[in-house]
Queue: 4 jobs
Job 1
Amino acid sequence: MPKCILIGAPIDSGQKRAGCLMGPAAYRVAGIAHEIGAEGHGIEDWGDLALSDLPDVSCPNPVVHDLAETVAWARLLMDKVDDALSEGGFPIILGGDHSLALGSAAGAAAYAARQNRPLFLLWLDAHSDFHTPLTTTSGNLHGTPLAYIAGREGFDAFPPFPLAVPAHRICMFGIRSVDPAEQAAMQERDIAINDMRVIDERGLVAPLREFLDRVRAESGMLHVSLDVDFLDPSIAPAVGTTVPGGATFREAHLVMELLHESGLVTSLDLVELNPFLDDRGMTARLMVDLVGSLMGKKVFDRPTRSK
């Protein structure tokens, strides 16, 4: 596996609940670099990104907030993720709210296009994030990145997405909160929605392996976007958008172990961690533990915890 490159994205502009900007620091305190290094991977930490000048942009939807900041973050992250991939690295973006995927996925798409390889997307999230700046009723742009990636209209303020990801290359996993307008737009594109009902009926392994088989068959690159609210709030409380019925500890680790065994993942988002809402760092530690599984850590490698 190529060396891992940590990119801190302390972004709070995609939603209204303060705290996600502390996410990158929490991941570092929870030992993400040590966890990756313990599995024998090289690692570089590029530190936290910071905005300079904000673009002069506007949106006809009056409820959209912090548009200039979110566009600026998207541009910055697009360049940095592209840079990391171009250096032969495996970028891990430490968020920050999910609006960061507007930039991280765009950077992965730009690099993939230059390599003449298709980009695939695994969206591990309670929400579909398929609104556009024109359709959002909350104004929270962390609910828009998947629509941008899939090529929906309404993103005139943002850089053109390098190459829209078609529906058959998108896999939504763990979905359990979708607005009717989002659902209608997704059905128009026939995106595979593996909601919790599908997972309850079929289990995790079959649908995930089917998707990974498609990635492998097309020699694709795979960008994984992991939202804290993919996990059940009982084990991961540090998120402002909790939805009951999420993935369990065992299910989440199984997903990560299957991804490791596939050898297909080329970039990773860790998003929506709000340390202000955490319980003594338990969510940050769990997310870092999941990264360990993605890097090759096995269940039997885990120490027994004191009772």
Job 2
Amino acid sequence: MNTDLQDYSHKRLNILTGEWVLVSPHRAKRPWQGQNEAVSKEVRPNYDESCYLCAGNTRINGEQNPKYEDVFVFTNDFAALQNDSKQFEVREGLLEAHSEQGICKVICFSPDHSKSLADMHPKDITKVVEAWQSEYRSLGANSNINYVQIFENKGAVMGCSNPHPHGQIWSQSTLPNEVDKKNTQQLKYYIKNKRSLLADYLSQELEKQERIIFENDAFVVLVPFWAIWPFETMIVPKRTQKSILEMTNAEVDLFAEAISVITKAYDKLFNTSFPYSSGIHQAPTNGQDNNHWHWHMSFYPPLLRSATVKKFMVGYEMFGSPQRDITAEIATKMLKELI
């Protein structure tokens, strides 16, 4: 391991976005006198009659959920994107705006109100992955939809408004900012090298074994070299695939296993139900071949030193660039020991 990276401030390049992150490993030793988050001691029931997402309950719009037994998907009652939105654009000097159409869905992972992905059996997570595939396929087939974003916000500290185990799927007519950056970087590399950017990166990581947390026959869980969040991780398929639709049935099971392993490790890290935002970045559904894409799933957890100390993106990070104290290599060591 390069000791300079563990002792001195430096910048690391995110090859997927072309952006830099400032790493300050010496700051990890400083005393903390900032805000401490409250740790929830709540023990949730298997069923909550007041929960809008529990099986059989009535949602705020008056629709009743079915008595679902595994995964349940429905159109978001408070969708951020409208499928029937008027199409328009505004160009007034330096003021520019364009209408955006889309479809937003909610996916309940389990009827059990008390669970999270970390508590679910890999076989049950497999059903979630299969639902993701189905939604990516059906939404992407819509001529107005050019990108499908699958994500989850877990925990109140991440702004999750309902503790029932669920995620969201937003699909829209254009590529969102983060996806556009990754599309550009992967395409540039593919044109130059005729290979997948992430496949070559993964090959280097597997050789060095400094940031690998877990691997099975089809997937690798690692802390990216350029990670921003303290315990950020990424799940990458070993075989180059443009989207989750290219997984075999066996790979779907192995992807579910990888999700189970990392979410369980997170919960053990600070002995709490670990909050995070996670999401899958994959090929646009714009009708192009998109052979430069290599899909991956990222986890962005905010906890820094304990269950009560959160990482805030403020100050320099808002006006300069992202910054982290704990290095990717130390975070890897801590997570790997929990598996």
Job 3
Amino acid sequence: MQNTKVDPRIIRTRKLLMDAFTKLTQKKGFKDITIKDITDEANINRATFYSHFQDKYDLIDAGITKEILDSIVKHWNHFNRLNKKTILNIFLTLTEFHTKNTEYITHNVERAWNPLIQ
């Protein structure tokens, strides 16, 4: 199996964009955040944003996915095989993530995706 290494510049740029987006969500709602806001906060240009993400929905999806996977890996690292205890730990990690992020998702993301809620 070929071991492909991701260019560190790609990792750094994606992190800059995700961090900028996270910072902006603390100041304003999801629907009010623009690509310009994100790129200004990250200090990169729009073309760079679009070379990494399709839109802000793609960015939030990537951020949520990364956070979930990071949480699972963090809790899984001390297990050496998949068993009942590991599966329970993964379930609890997902439940904790959901509980921690429900308010944000409900108030910002759902409203942005469904104009009928507003």
Job 4
Amino acid sequence: MKNQNIRAQLSQIEITLRSKIGLELIQQHFEDLQLSIIQQMDLSNLIDYLSELKLADCCLFERLMRLDAALCQLDLGLYGLCSDCESEIEASRLQSDLTEQRCSVCASRYNQEHRHELRLTH
């Protein structure tokens, strides 16, 4: 898949996420917030802004972070490489989720470690 095509698809994901974030903010009663501001912020400022609003725990925030990472990797010529071991991420994983950050082996390892961390904190 060409970088231009990947970037276009990632841009579509960003548009969808921004729309969902706007709805999330409305549901949480941020009436004074002008939603047009969200649409005008660049991705890193939007991430910072959501952190300030204490919305970093929501699923949309995680997707936004993954999108930002994928776009950065694309800019650096590292898109499609595992963020842990730097091996190529399987094409099927990227086709399933263009923002995937790990190969299947590292994703499995990460999920096991993360579950272990959750057990330790509860």
